[in-house]
Every structure is written in structure tokens, then in C-alpha cells.
Amino acid sequence: MVRTEMPDRDDPSYVDYITLTKEQYKIGLLKSIFFTAIAVLVFFVPLSINGKNDILFGYIYNYFVNLFGNFGLWIVMLLMIGNTLGSFYGKYVAGKDSFFHDYYGHDSVLHPFLYLLGTFYTVIYTLHVNVAQFTGPEWIVGSGTGGTVIPSIVLGVLWIIIVGAFFMPFLLNYGGIDFVGSILEPIMRPVFKVPGKSAIDAIASFVTSSSMAVIITSKLYRMNVYTKREAATIATSFSAVSVGFALLVINTAGLGDHFLKTYFSALLITFIISIIMVRIPPLSKKPNVYSSGKVQTDEERAGEAKFERGIVKRGLDRAAKRAYTAESIFKEIFLSLKDGFFVIPKVLTLLAAAGISGLIVAEYTPFFQWIGQVFVPLLQILGVPSAQEIAPSIPVGFAEMFLPVLLIADQVDMIEIGARYFITVMSMVQIIFLSETIVVMMATRMPVKFWELIVCFMQRTLIAMPIVALFMHLLF
Questions:
Q1: Which of 280, 365, 472, 473 has a CA that sits 20 to 30 A from residue 123's CA?
Q2: Distance CA 307, CA 297 (A)
């Protein structure tokens, strides 16, 4: 294998500087095809087992959820207690050269208190579920607050991260994304101003979960595949709701008979919004700098982003080179699991703190009702029926994407179908919400600030409203 003017391995153009012999190329291509095929089977191919349709990732993830059951709550609770104690020690006591300072030193001064809040919620819920003599307060353990966040989101994300970390190297480290990126670059770069590889993130969110998509984006950002601007754009624009969860949301709104047109119109609207979002601040102002500090050049952005003869061959060449130079699969899995376990305590604790707090505000205060009134005149201008009834559902999506539909669930028979379509699609295209995507972005230290996420949520909401209303009038 001959290397000339070889850049650092962290350089995104690394593979283009590699020359392989015919034998090396053959080995690399076979490795790429084999490992990528496993990834495709795990993440993207629906299977029917015992009458249930899901992807293999879903079956494995559900197996662990069911295997551990309520015992998983004790595991999560102990992780959170350790994380909270460690955060106070690391942030305010530990020396600068210690592991605890290195792990918690980048957190804000508020993080230890958020960890404490999330741990408090989880301890109360765990004792309520597992100890017969203990009854937690309804506002923490009720089905509309902790009963929604902890069993389905916190425990779910625990196994999503672990199972996802095990299989991610098959998807990311052996050339699959290099091939996809080369093929889709002519579309993704000019339209969305992101690499073709970002299509992997979008597909992952559709078939697995928005958390998995954010984790993949974070991983690729740290691998210097994405710049800060690209990572922030992809995480806030393409981490859409999965097909499975979309089905639950759509059925709850009484739109099960209209699933296909509701779901696919939501996907189309998501991409339309993203085309606009990447061209306005704060996303457009993010620097095109890799996590290593290297500045992306105009030549790298332009790349070879056009359809031409040889585009498939270029993708295959990059895939073969990436696979040939990758570490063994066992080492890659070990490193990926290590990264996954590294973020689990922070992610889970913040999910509990932010998710349950947001739902408590939504369930027990008129806060979102008040904010919702701001949207009534705009809904009326757009010709959306039942404006007064659905207006509070628009801002509540910031707390949890399922909440907008839950707020109207007991009024399904009274609210017009167009209004139900409007609020269902709005909840699916807002993408940014406290109980999951925001927390995962913060915990994995994506290059985006909390206030920027608030701004992006508001922008996506305001941009989406007239577009969703247009589709509502066309389809219903």
C-alpha cells in the first residue's frame, strides 16, 4: 500500500490519499460489502417475526427491554445516583488532572443540579413501581409525566445507545457511508449544504429513532466527517420521528386510515423546512470547522458534487479504502461501546430531568395554554379549523413530540380531520424537543447551544405552519 502526502487519519479526505494494490482493493471491498450488509440488515430491513413487523435493531432492543424489565429501573437509578454524585465532585472538588474533572468539567454550573433533579424523579418513580409500601406523588409518577418519560424514553434510550453502539461500527467504519456519501453528494450538498453521508442519519431516524440519528451524527462529528455547521444542521433538521412512533402518533389522532399520506407528506415537509433552515441563522452562522479544529475549505465543500460517469466507482473505491484501513471489527465495537457507555449516565439523567419537568409544566400549569393563544390568529388566517382547540398543542411539542396529539386525543371525534392532520404533522416536523433530541444533543456535546435549539424550534414551527396548512387544504 503506497501513501503519498498522507494527511492525518482524522482528515475527512484521508481515504482519497490512499493507494491500494489489486489484492488489497479486493479485500477492502469484500470487507466493506460484508460489514455494510450486516448494518443494512440490522438498521434498515423490516422483518416479520411472530406476526410483528420491525427491523432487527428493534427486535434486539426490545429483547433487552423485556429481559431486564423493572430491574432496568434499578440499574438506571444507580447510574443516575453515581452520575449526580460524580458531577458535584468533578465540577466543584476534583483536581484538574482527575478523570472526574475531565468528564464533568465541560458541564455548565447548572448541570449538577439538573442531574440531581433527574435522579430525584427517577428514584421516586423506581420506588413507586417496585416498592409496594411506597406511593409517589402523581405529578411525578403519573402516566402523563414520569410514567411516560422513564419507562418508554429513559429506559428505551438506554438500550438504544447500547445496542446502537454495538452495531454502529458496521455502519460507520467500513465504507458504507463513504459509498452513500459519494452517490448522494450531488443532491445533499447543493440542496441542504451538507455531505451526502448525512442521508444515513435521516434514514436511521426514520427506521430506528431520532435519538439514534443524533448519536450517529455526534459520532461522525467527532470522527471529523461533519463540521460544526453540518453536524448542527443534520441533528436539528434530519432527526425525524421513526416510522413506528409515527404510526402511534397518527393512530392516536384518529388518522390511521390516512397513514401513508400523513407520514409521507410530513417527511416531504421536513425536507422543505430543512432547505430553508440551513440558509438562515443560527445554523447558517455556524463555522465550517471540524472537531479537530481543521477549517473546511471551499474545495472540500465543492468536492465532486455532480452526477457524472464514474461516481459509483468513486464511491466503491472510497468504501474499499475505508474498510481496508479500518481497525478489526472487535476493536471498533469495543471503542464504540466505550463511547456509548461514556455518555449514558449524562443522557439518561438529563432525559429524566428535562422530559419530566417539561411534562409537569404541560400537564399541571396553563403555561402552554397561554403561549398557544399567540398562534390562534395565524391558524385562523391559514384557514385551519378548530384553531382555538389545537393552538396549545403547537408550543407543547417543545416538551415532548407526542404531547401535541395527546392534548387532543380525548377530542378526536369533535375536532375536524383537517385540524387533526395539521397538529399531527406539526408535531412530527418540529423535531426539536426536550424529552429526547435536545437532551441527547446536549449530553453528546454537539456543537449547538440550548438557546440556539429554542430559536431553531421556533423557526421550524413558524416556517412549518403555512406549509402544513397548504398540505392540509390539498389533502383534506
A1: 365
A2: 21
